[in-house]
C-alpha cells in the first residue's frame, strides 16, 4: 500500500511514533516495576482467568503472555539477575527447589489420585448435605440392625462408602451414564458387589461360615437445615449369605 | 550472603546444607516411619517386630485384597495383587529390612531407595485399587518416590560429570532439601484442590465442616457400635461450628492458609521449624475435631521440618564448646 498524499504519510509517521512511544513507555513501566509486583499482577490476572472472568478477546494474550511475565517476576524476586548470563540464571531456575515445588504441585494436580501422587480432594466441598454408608443385618422383625463394621469386615464405614462410590462412578463411566440415570436395579447391583467384597473380607478374618446372615448396605443422607439435623436412610442392596 | 548459609548466592528458598550427623539422624528416624508404613506382614508375635511394635499408626501390615477391580497408578499396567500373597511375604520382609539398613547407613541408596519405593508403591496401589483412596500413607510414598528420583539423578550426574566438576552440595543435601520440597508441595496441592474443587467457595462454606464431623462421628459409630463414645446426636464441636459460621470460617481459613503458604518454611531453619509446628498442630486439630489421624504425615513433617536432630545436635555442640558460638541455624 502506498500513501499518496503527504498528510497521509505525516499521519502514519505520527501514528507509528505515537504507537512506538506508547509501547516504549509501557515496556519501561512494566520492566521497571519490582519483581514482586509483576508476580502479584500475574497471579491476579491468572486467578481471574482461572475463574473464567476474563473477556474472550483477552484469553489468548493471557494464556501466552502472563505465564512468562510471572516467571520474569519470580526470577526478579528470588534471583540476582544483573551481571549473570541467561544460561546461569536458567540453570539456577531449573535446579531451584522452589521451582520444583511448583512443578510437583502442578504434576500432583494433573495426575490426581494415582499412588504415590494425589491432589488430596477430601473435604474440599463442604456443604449442608452429606451421605454415609453402613452395614446392617436383617433383624427378626425385618428391621436393619447395624453391624460393627470395623470388627466384622475389617472395612470402616468411610472405606465402604468410598468403595461404593468408586464402583458406582466406574459403572457410570463404563456405561457412559450420568448419576441421575442410575436405576434402583443398577444401585442394587453395585451395592451387592460391595456386600460380596465385605463378606469375603469378613470370612477371611473370622473364618468360613462366620457370617451366615442377610446383610444390607444402607445409605444415610445427612442434612443440616434451619430445623436442625435430618437423617434419611435408604437400603441400597440386600444379600442373603445364610446359604 | 553467606555461601554456607541457607540462601546461597543469589537464590532464596533455595538449597541448604546439612551436616553428616544430621542427615544420619534424619534417615534413621524416617526409616522408622517407612518401616511403620510398609505394606508387608508384621514381624514376630502380635505385630511386634525386632525394631519395636508396629501397628501404632494402624497403617502397617499386608494389604489383603485379592483383586484390583479399580486400578490406579501402576495397577493399570502391572498386576500388583502378588503383594497380598503369603508366599512373597518372607522375601518382601527380608528385602525391606536389608534396604532399610542400607538406607539408614547411607550406603547403596541407589539400590535400597528404589526397592523400598517399589514395595511401598505396589502395596499401596493395590490398596487404592479397590475403589477408594487411603490417604494415610500417601506422603511417605510420595517422599520415597522423590528421594528415589533424586538419588537416580544425582548418580547419573556424578557419572556423566567430568573430573573436577564437584557439586557444591552433597547427595544428603539434595535428598533432604527435595524431601522438604515434596512435603511442602503435598500440602500446597491440598490447599489448591480445596479452592479448585469448591470453585473458590471453600472458606464461605467451611462452617459446613460441622456436617463432615457429624458424618465421621456416625461412621465411627457404625465401625464400633460404641454408643457411649459416638451415641450423641451432634458430634463434639459440630454444633458450635454450625451455629457460629463466622468464627468457624476464621479458624478454617487459618488452616487453609497453613496449607497454602507452608512453602514459606523453605526460607530458613527457623521458619521451617515454625511451619512444621503449625502443620503438626493443624493435624492435631483435625484429629481432635474430626477423628481423622495422619500420624505418618505428622512424623514425616516433624522429622524434616521441625528437625529435632539438628536442634538437639546444635544444643549438644553448644554445651560442649561454650566459648565458641553455636552453629548458625541456617547453615
Provide the fold topology.
The complex is a heterodimer of chains A (243) and B (331).
Chain A: H1 6-32, H2 35-50, H3 56-78, H4 86-95, H5 97-111, E1 129-138, E2 144-146, H6 149-153, H7 157-174, H8 184-206, E3 214-225, E4 228-240
Antiparallel strand pairs in A: 1-2, 1-3, 3-4
Helix pairs in contact in A: 2-3, 7-8
Chain B: H1 20-37, E1 48-49, E2 52-53, H2 89-105, H3 109-128, H4 138-160, H5 171-197, H6 202-205, H7 209-224, H8 227-230, H9 238-243, H10 245-260, H11 269-290, H12 295-306, H13 308-320
Antiparallel strand pairs in B: 1-2
Helix pairs in contact in B: 1-2, 1-12, 2-3, 3-4, 4-5, 5-10, 5-12, 11-12
Overview features:
heterodimer, A: alpha+beta, four-stranded antiparallel β-sheet, B: 331 residues, mainly alpha, disordered N terminus
Q: In words, what does this structure look like?
A:
The complex is a heterodimer of chains A (243) and B (331). Chain A is an alpha+beta fold and 243 residues long. Chain A has a four-stranded antiparallel beta sheet. In chain A, a hairpin with a 5-residue loop joins strand 1 and strand 2. In chain A, helix 2 runs antiparallel to helix 3 and helix 7 crosses helix 8. Chain A is elongated and about 100 Å long. The relative contact order of chain A is 0.07. Chain B contains 13 helices and two strands. Chain B has a two-stranded antiparallel sheet with strand order 1-2. Chain B is globular, with a radius of gyration of 22 Å. Chain B has 331 residues and is mainly alpha-helical. At the A-B interface, helix 5, strand 1, helix 6, helix 7 and helix 8 of A face helix 3, helix 4, helix 5 and helix 7 of B.
Strand order of the largest sheet of chain B: 1-2
Report the uncertain regions of chain A. none
What is the count of β-strands of chain B?
Answer: 2
Strand order of the largest sheet of chain A: 2-1-3-4
Care to give the gist of this entry?
The complex is a heterodimer of chains A (243) and B (331). By secondary structure, chain A is an alpha+beta fold. Helix content of chain A is 56%, strand content 16%.
